[in-house]
Amino acid sequence: QVQLVESGGGLVQPGGSLRLSCGASRSLLSRLVMGWYRQAPGKQRELVATCTSGGNTNYADSVKGRFTISRDNAKTTVYLQMNSLEPDDTAVYYCNAAGRVVGIAYNYWGQGTQVTVSS
């Protein structure tokens, strides 16, 4: 079992920035797609961004041009740089690592970190 540890959430004013981090010391993560999802009150969890081990990225339309996802050299930590934050970005952000390795499916979630954008 892999426990993903998240950090970096908090309260920020509109237009501000935050950087989220998530990872674990498990080499398995380097073979999985890692990403971020978010869930606002009363809404379903939605994709924010994903990053493959090869560096291919995918973003929700609502965050393109404002958020940047990246991974460390070991590919076991994923970051989400969030700039030009808006009140609609307020949500609990969840880290995810998923994929199939040697026929075995993996899907891990972090505990969630609160991001609040408010003046």
The percentage of residues in β strands lies in over 45%
The shape, in one word, is: globular
- SSE ordering: EEEEEEEEEEE
Low-confidence stretches: none
Mean pLDDT: 95
Q: Describe the sheet with the most strands.
A: 7 strands, mixed
Helix content: under 10%
The tally of strands reads 11
- Distance N to C terminus: 40 Å
Tell me the radius of gyration. 14 Å
Class based on secondary structure composition and strand pairing: mainly beta
Count the helices. How many? 0
Can you walk through the features of this model?
It is a single chain. Strand 4 and strand 5 (46-51) form a beta hairpin. The strands form two sheets. Strands 2, 4, 5, 6, 9, 10 and 11 form a seven-stranded mixed β-sheet that branches. A four-stranded antiparallel β-sheet has the order 1-3-8-7, with no helix packed on it. The model has no long low-confidence stretch (mean pLDDT 95). The protein is mainly β. It contains no helices and eleven strands.
